[in-house]
Structure formats: structure tokens, C-alpha cells
């Protein structure tokens, strides 16, 4: 009889875990003041949504052309760069996902870029296409 009770308890525990896991993932856990992990993640998520701290589309376009040594006077008019989202990766650094439509390339390219500086004075230091 105790074997069946154990299996029944395990089954109920697994079902509760399967049901509760998505809820915990969406709402998060409150560990109180002892845990700084939750507060730092919340700050990171808030900064990802704050458009005031990320570079403008025009700044990102100019920095992408500068970093890549492309002639913006020749190809800039037919090109656009849109900053999709950014996250803080250090005190004065952010990583951004850019969507670039370059005039001499067919289609749009997804670009990951790292900027250093501060709001209003961002400088791209690295970029790569995905």
C-alpha cells in the first residue's frame, strides 16, 4: 500500500510542477531583500524597454557606416537602420539588435551591435550580422 501512495504522491507532485512552472516563469519569484538577482533582472528588462537610453535610428545608421568604412554620402540615402531592442551590458555599454536595409544589398539584414558611451553620445564599437 505504501508503494502506491508513494507513486500517487509523485504523480500529483509532477502534475503540480508541470502546471506551476509556466506561471512561475511569467510572474517570477519574490525572494525578498536577500536576493539581488531578481531586482537586477527587473532593471535589465526595464532598460531594454526604455527608448530614451538607446541610440536613435539615425545614430545607429551613421555609426554602422562609420564602423564599416562605407561611404554614407554615396549609399546613405537609400539605406535605413532601425534599432529594434537594446539591453545594458555594462556601466556605459549596451547591445542592440538592428534591422538594416542597405541600398546596395537586396533584403534586410539583422545586425547585432555594441555601443559605448551615454544617451545622446553613443559610439558603435562592434557589429556583426546574424
Secondary structure blueprint with pairings:
Elements lengths: L1 H26 L9 H13 L7 H12 L3 H4 L4 E9 L4 E9 L6 E9 L6 E7 L1
Antiparallel strand pairs: 1-2, 2-3, 3-4
* Strand proportion: 25-35%
Mean pLDDT: 78
Largest sheet: 4 strands, antiparallel
Distance between the termini: 58 Å
Total strands: the figure is 4
Strand order of the largest sheet: 1-2-3-4
Main structural class? alpha+beta
Low-confidence stretches: 44-49
Range of helix content: 40-55%
Element order, helices and strands?
HHHHEEEE
> What's the number of helices?
4
Envelope shape: elongated
The radius of gyration computed from the alpha-carbon positions, rounded to a whole number of angstroms, is 23 Å
Keywords for this structure?
4 strands, 130 residues, alpha+beta, single chain
Short summary:
The chain is of the alpha+beta class. It is 42% helix and 26% strand. The longest helix is centred in the first third of the chain and has 26 residues.
Description of the structure:
The structure is a single chain. The chain is α+β, with helices and mostly antiparallel strands and 130 residues long. The protein contains 4 helices and 4 strands. It is elongated, with a radius of gyration of 23 Å. The N and C termini lie far apart (58 Å).
